[in-house]
TrEMBL record:
Native organism: Methanothermococcus okinawensis
Annotated positions binding substrate: S7, H65, G139, F140, S141, G142, D172, G173, G174, A194, S195
Lineage of the organism: Archaea, Methanobacteriati, Methanobacteriota, Methanomada group, Methanococci
PROSITE patterns (UniProt xref): RIBUL_P_3_EPIMER_1, RIBUL_P_3_EPIMER_2
Name by which UniProt lists this protein: Ribulose-phosphate 3-epimerase
EC number: 5.1.3.1
Length: 219
């Protein structure tokens, strides 16, 4: 079954615990924590304090999405997160960074910006837990899904299946009820969403509808 990750970037920060409990009740599979440094992306979001807090109040797996320069610098402090996602564009030594993550007993996920080609993954694919395909330019929630990314997800799916790698495809950015079935059909294993979950007024209903929308997709 396709997994759903709730990105707390669009949550109400004044009631973070309630928001996390709400998505838990709604049955999401993991919590996605967006960390931005104001350099790699033109925005600043949350850091280790919030990540640790979220970890302390949820039993769900946590995935931290590092949209930062020098991701290797931050790995030690995020070592308690279940998955650590870093961008290939900001990492000069991906093998070293992947090993740092594994040494912390966390799972390495590599993120690609929309215009970054899949061949950047060629030598690291067998070393990682997942690939996170960005379907908007990173930095903000509430942006529009870039349609060309469907073909990219399809090609990545074919590559992973052909080589027999055990790698999960995460898709992040602009997911909504309309494009979610197409994204799953293209080969995604996990959908990450902020605004389509938190900006709807009814979080539980939003997650239920998202699940419903992808349930009938024939793979
Ligand atoms: C964007 C973040 C996403 C974002 C998704 O830079 O990485 O995780 O929160 O937000 P939506 O689902 O609203 O596009
Ligand atoms: Zn993200």
């Amino acid at each position: 079954m396709v997994k759903i990750g709730a990105s707390i970037l669009s949550a109400n920060y004044g009631h973070l615990e309630e928001e996390v409990k709400r998505v838990e009740r709604a049955g999401v599979d993991f919590i996605h924590i967006d960390v931005m440094d104001g350099h790699f992306v033109p925005n600043i979001s949350m850091g280790i304090g919030i990540a640790n807090y979220v970890k302390s109040i949820t039993s769900l797996p946590t995935e931290v999405h590092l949209m930062v320069e020098h991701p290797e610098m931050f790995i030690p402090m995020f070592g308690d997160m279940d998955m650590i996602t870093f961008h290939i564009e900001s990492c000069r030594f991906p093998f070293r960074t992947i090993n740092l993550i594994k040494e912390r007993d966390s799972k390495p996920v590599v993120a690609l910006n929309p215009s970054t080609p899949l061949n950047t993954l060629e030598y690291i694919l067998e070393e990682i837990y997942g690939v996170l395909v960005m379907t908007v330019e990173p930095g903000f929630s509430g942006q529009k899904f870039i349609p060309q990314m469907l073909g990219k997800i399809e090609r990545l799916r074919r590559l992973i299946d052909r080589e027999g790698y055990n790698v999960q495809i995460f898709v992040d950015g602009g997911i909504n009820l309309e494009n979610a079935p197409k994204v799953v059909e293209a080969g995604a294993d996990a959908l990450i969403s902020a605004s389509a979950i938190f900006n709807t007024g009814d979080v539980e209903e939003a997650v239920r509808r998202l699940r419903e929308a992808v349930k009938s997709v024939k793979l």
